[in-house]
Amino acid sequence: MSVKTIILDWAGTTVDFGCMAPVHAFKKAFRNKNIELSNEEIRKPMGMLKIEHIKQLLSLEQVKKQWFELYGRLSEEKDVLSIYQDFEKYLFADLAENSHLKPETKQAMKKIKQLGYNIGSTTGYTKEMMAVVLNTATMEGYRPDYVVTPDEVDSLGRPYPFMIFENMRHFQNHSMEEVIKVGDTIADIQEGKNAGVLSIAVTEGSSVMGLSLEEYKQLSKEEMERLNQQTAEIFYQHGADLCIKNLLELAELLQEHSTIPKLQTKKRESA
Question: How far from 206 is each of 43, 83, 212, CA to CA, in Å?
Fold first, then answer.
């Protein structure tokens, strides 16, 4: 059965090279509570529903220790909500500015649409956040056929597969083999694996790589290649079926009609 639908993530995959907007917002929101987090710590749960992301960060041993030393108790639900409110405030302040298309997105999406594929999407952003992101992306020339946020699946975002299933319902896909999930976080890969679809990771500009476009451009070609390989290894360790550098590589794969069927056969045989 041939692939008909490509489901893409947003920040770090199609927009916001390096997935910088949520990193900055999480850092500021936790700093308001006098908790310091490294970018690496912040990025680890990236792709999840944002309030769940905050809970994951609060569960880190060093964060629990800092919190107890500061407040004489462990964090509670009211603290999660307070941090989330600050996170939303900081995110909305910078979201439009940090939602520009990644360099290859417009060209790649044009090619994929010309090949006749449906383009769906899932995200860790809420519907309100996505309205900002979608507006910027549309003005710059990219608008997928369908957008699903966690709010639309009872807040059961990644790693749950329900946003993918909602895309499949919309496009009336008959089988998991008609769908490919593409993303830049471990949560994206988990979402795809849990849905039973081919799961492809983008390395360049990904949250896992963790560099802004300016930082990435300063690297030599050899450094870029080495960093993409290191990032791919992390994705493969978490079950990615394939890693690509960017979305133009995805368009090429979809056009040549051989790699994807081989991956599907391998997936069936390993099931």
Answer: 10, 25, 9
Say whether pTM exceeds 0.85: yes
> 19-96 belongs to which homologous superfamily?
Putative phosphatase; domain 2 (1.10.150.240)
Give Cα separations from 49 to 12, 197, 200, 252 (angstroms). Answer: 15, 20, 20, 31
Q: Which amino acid is at 212?
A: S
Q: Which superfamily does 3-16+99-266 belong to?
A: HAD superfamily/HAD-like (3.40.50.1000)
Q: Which residues are annotated as a binding site for Mg(2+)?
A: 9, 11, 184
Phi-psi region of 16 (alpha: psi -120 to 50; beta: other; left: phi over 0): left
Catalytic residues: 9, 50
Q: What is the pLDDT of residues 192-245, one digit of tens each?
A: 999 999 999 999 999 999 999 999 999 999 999 999 999 999 999 999 999 999
Dist CA 67 CA 73 (whole Å): 7
The torsion angles phi and psi of 145, rounded to 5 degrees, stand at -70, -25
| Average pLDDT of span 135-156 | 97
Q: How far is CA 83 from the centre of its chain?
A: 21
